[in-house]
Specification:
single chain; 118 residues; mainly beta; five-stranded antiparallel sheet; globular
Length: 118
């Protein structure tokens, strides 16, 4: 049986929003695709971020195979824009910063660190 990997999605930084006045963002994540449905943070609307601003999300991600994190911009229900996706794996170095860039110019950095707490 594979050991559980424990990381914290510590921050999400807006390097460049997809819209001139900033984005209202949220994430959906799935732990070990076979273990359940996507969870959403925050549960409604989004967190407003402008260029250079940071969301201190501090979200624990405990997984054996993968944690898939999707970053969205909240527009109106049913019209939200997927900004990008990152798949975390047990082999990823920690701490780690990954960049999500989409065709509309959105540019975000996701920073994780080890989660050694129980």
């Amino acid at each position: 049986m594979a050991a559980e990997t424990r990381i914290i999605l510590e921050t999400i930084k807006c390097n460049n929003p997809s819209e001139p006045l900033g984005d209202s963002i949220y994430i959906k994540y799935v732990i070990d695709s076979h273990r359940g449905r996507a969870e959403r943070v925050p549960s409604s609307k989004g967190i407003d971020l402008k260029k250079g601003e940071v969301w201190p999300i501090n979200l624990p991600l405990n997984f054996k195979e993968t944690a898939v994190v999707e970053l969205y911009e909240y527009d109106f229900p049913g019209t939200d824009e997927l900004l990008g996706t990152h798949v975390y794996a047990p082999s990823d170095p920690q701490p780690e910063t990954v960049q999500i860039i989409n065709r509309n110019g959105a540019d975000y950095s996701l920073h994780t660190k080890n989660n050694n707490s129980r």
